[in-house]
Specification:
The chain has 518 residues and is an alpha+beta fold. It is built from 15 helices and 25 strands. The longest helix is centred in the middle third of the chain and has 24 residues.
Length: 518
């Protein structure tokens, strides 16, 4: 299997990164210069409000929008100190050492006993603000490297849960302890560090410690709300977090971005620099790999499955609903076998679409009904296996009595659709508009109200041309009756291109003076 990473930055407003496996798009990241990207950044903030009812603080961290800090994301050193104390946070000598236990206490005091308005707090953004909600903050900072994650609040070494081999876990923990990290700082081995040498892990630890010393200096010198540490740009983040030895090549279509990526690889993964290539072909990079048409399909509601059938994806405010439809798919045998085989295919595609669209929160999958318990369990396993490659945290429940498979997927930033699309100005995001019949009925009601005004002599109604056609034909008798009853003349004007729900009333008296119409 050939795996490639394609990085398109030919336009300054947008960066696109695609991961393809044997020509099939498996992951897509899009970042716009106009969008705020705070996740991973560390700030010195100031508490501006406390909400005891939800045990949360709202923190001004200098970006013009307050962040949300829940009691569960407040580390114990704040419990003892009551607010921010730089000596406790970074140590008396400023070398990044922390004197605190690694475990979180089981009993936490109320947030109103931990903070007061005006207290300073060091926070990291762990989730972008979505809609009217501000960014989610945490005092448990983590700074990722290529193979390790520096966690100043941890105070010990550990290994990612995704590394399941017990022998590998013991060896990695032993190597970290032998590297003698500074007292009080914690390090976690990432999945990418599983088969790395002691030298590679040591290089990554040294890189993170240099970075931490810079952060410590900025914490001490920064006054008031402001940034302490900013995450790398999307190109460096993606190479750091996704690139592995099974990626055969990285192609970048802009020289400056290529040089940044090359510098990063030389620093943390020098043996893979030869896999980085500057693409200078005349044909656009994504177009050469037929990705533009594939990306356009990502935004469609219905996704066709290879052997027939489809899945329909409907994101809502509360959850994402996914429905599996059989369509023309038929398997040899009975209906049970058909449902089973289609559900297995759908499970893999659902996992892929969730990654591509970056959908998160509560997700409800409505698979085709299956009677056999073994088939239901097999579909659940197929979904779990397909989701196991997802970098976002997921939790999948067993099939409910109604045949639904409920799951959650970590939502860090708004979905791809939210980043690319705005609500339709015509339907305000409903996805539907009133029919010509419905609008005509409403217009007739409004004409009845206009007829009640004693001075109204002429009414001009401007509507969509389809609505006007319905009024002038199907509702003509009703309008004529209102004209006779109210002693007024009604003119219906249709304008092509008007929104289907657009209605414009102009009421005049016999002298041509305008009469207000509510």
């Amino acid at each position: 299997m050939r795996k490639e990473m394609l990085i398109n930055v030919s336009q300054p407003e947008e960066c696109r990164i695609a991961i393809i496996e044997d020509g099939v798009l498996e992951e897509l990241c899009i970042e716009r210069a106009s969008q705020d990207n705070y996740v991973g950044n560390i700030y010195k903030g100031r508490v501006v409000n406390l909400e005891p009812s939800i045990q949360a603080a709202f923190v001004d961290f200098g970006v013009g929008r307050n962040g949300f800090l829940h009691i569960s994301d407040v580390e114990p050193q704040y419990f003892r100190q009551g607010g921010y104390d730089p000596k406790q946070l970074i140590g008396e000598d400023g070398d990044g050492r922390r004197q605190r236990p690694g475990a979180r206490p089981r009993v936490k005091p109320p947030i109103q006993e931990i903070f007061r308005r005006g207290d300073e707090v060091i926070v990291q953004v762990i989730k972008e603000g979505i809609g009217t909600k501000g960014p989610t903050l945490s005092t448990y900072a983590s700074i990722p490297g290529r193979y390790l994650v520096l966690m100043p609040s941890l105070g010990r070494v550990g290994v990612s849960r995704k590394i399941e081999d017990d022998e590998a876990r013991r060896n990695l923990r032993k190597i970290l302890l032998e590297l003698n990290p500074p007292k009080g700082l914690g390090f976690i081995v990432r999945t990418a560090g599983q088969e790395r040498t002691r030298k590679e892990l040591s290089r990554d630890m040294a890189y993170l410690l240099r970075l931490w010393k810079v952060i410590v200096r900025r914490i001490k010198n920064t006054q008031g709300p402001g940034d302490i540490y900013e995450e790398s740009d999307m190109i460096i983040r993606t190479i750091r977090d996704i690139f592995s030895s099974d990626v055969d090549a990285i192609y970048i279509d802009q020289e400056a971005a290529y040089e940044r990526a090359k510098e990063f690889l030389q620093l943390v993964m020098p043996r893979f620099v030869n896999r980085l290539h500057l693409y200078d072909g005349k044909e656009p990079l994504f177009h050469k790999y037929h990705l533009d048409s594939e990306i356009a399909r990502i935004h469609k509601r219905e996704v066709k499955l290879p052997e027939g059938g489809s899945i329909v994806i409907d994101p809502t405010e509360a959850l994402v609903a996914i429905d599996v439809n059989s369509g023309s798919f038929r398997a040899d045998g009975n209906a049970e076998e058909t449902a089973y085989r289609l559900n297995l295919t759908a499970a893999k595609e659902i996992a892929r679409q969730l990654r591509l669209r970056d959908l998160g929160g509560v997700i409800v999958n409505d698979f085709i009904d299956m009677r056999r318990e073994t088939h239901r369990r097999a579909v659940e396993r197929a979904l779990r296996d397909a989701m196991s490659r997802d970098r976002a945290r997921t939790k999948i429940l067993r099939t409910s009595p109604f045949g639904l498979v409920e799951m959650t997927r970590q939502r860090i930033r708004p979905s791809l659709k939210t980043s690319v699309y705005a609500d339709c100005p015509c339907c305000s995001g409903r996805g539907a508009v009133k029919t010509a019949e419905s609008m005509s009925i409403e217009v007739v009601r409004m004409l009845m109200l206009a007829g009640q005004k004693p001075k109204v002599s002429r009414v001009t109604v401007r509507v969509n041309d389809e609505v006007a056609s319905y009024l002038n034909n199907t509702k003509r008798r009703d309008i004529t009756g209102l004209e006779e009853e109210g002693g007024m003349h009604v003119q219906i004007l249709g304008t092509e291109g008007l929104f289907p729900e657009h209605v414009e009333f102009d009421c005049r008296d016999s002298d041509g003076r305008e009469i207000a119409f509510n």
